[in-house]
Write a sequence for this structure.
């Protein structure tokens, strides 16, 4: 079973909400068993109720976080420690800095692998597009590569390959920006490079669904 | 990461502020749990050397260093 959390209580989470819908759509198209904790459903109580069923193979968290937590709707903490029913789950946390402490803690507890960020996760957006995030081409430069981590794992790649594919797309986007006529492109590249360097895998890179 | 309390180098601050001033007015930057910042808010944060301001300067200067040293070509290798 795959579980995705995607709150939408502020601008940043609204972008993550819409971009992770692509992953939800993929699961539905391929009839992958999915729990979609969207909006207010991205809360600790519901999250833990699915954890207790002990059937989670892959958890894709979208939301705010810091060194030792990841959050759901209204920044309620949904993961702050290893739960015994996580077992061999693979985690991808698209949230700030959670690879610094939380990721290590979860892997030490027993999950098979954790993909996340050691620093704050940056996304550049266009205010003109923020009522329709999927049409925001600047944000896509950041969020399509991170979506690819989840998509690649769902397609059967191992965690190491998923990380590699995601970084390859980030690098391709950086090269395209460098060669483009985009305004303030140096700054866009700087933030993309920051995300590239911050994305890490902790645990077993050969883990797969 | 720049240490708490450490001041930003004045030259680096000016370079980055000059860069940010060129941004379009519809620009917004989501910085994880710090929130979303407009061009004006970014300039204010760099000026007062908040945690966000320090991060922006650090990221931009890291990029310039990668560019000058040529490390960016290694980073972008497949």
């Amino acid at each position: 079973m795959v579980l995705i959390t995607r709150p939408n209580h502020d601008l940043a989470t609204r972008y993550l909400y819409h971009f992770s819908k692509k992953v939800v759509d993929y699961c539905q198209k391929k009839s992958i068993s999915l729990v979609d904790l969207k909006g207010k459903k991205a809360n600790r109580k519901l999250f833990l109720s699915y954890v207790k069923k002990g059937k989670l193979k892959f958890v894709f968290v979208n939301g705010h976080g810091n060194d030792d937590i990841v959050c759901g709707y209204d920044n309620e903490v949904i993961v702050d420690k290893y739960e015994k029913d996580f077992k061999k789950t693979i985690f991808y946390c698209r949230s700030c800095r959670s690879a610094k402490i939380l990721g290590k803690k979860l892997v030490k507890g027993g999950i098979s692998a954790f993909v996340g960020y050691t620093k704050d996760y940056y996304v550049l957006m266009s205010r003109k597009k923020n009522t329709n995030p999927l049409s925001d081409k600047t944000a896509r430069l950041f969020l399509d590569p991170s979506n690819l981590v989840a998509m690649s794992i769902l397609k059967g790649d191992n965690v190491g390959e998923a990380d590699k594919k995601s970084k390859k797309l980030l690098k391709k986007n950086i090269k395209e920006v460098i060669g483009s006529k985009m305004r303030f492109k140096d700054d866009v590249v700087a933030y993309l490079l920051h995300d590239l360097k911050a994305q890490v895998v902790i645990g077993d890179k050969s883990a797969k669904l | 990461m720049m240490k708490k309390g450490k001041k930003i180098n004045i030259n680096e601050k000016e370079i980055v502020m000059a860069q940010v001033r060129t941004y379009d007015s519809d620009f917004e930057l989501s910085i994880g749990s710090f929130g979303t910042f407009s061009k004006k808010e970014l300039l204010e944060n760099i000026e007062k050397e908040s945690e966000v301001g320090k991060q922006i300067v650090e990221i931009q200067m890291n990029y310039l260093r990668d560019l000058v040293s040529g490390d960016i070509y290694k980073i972008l290798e497949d």
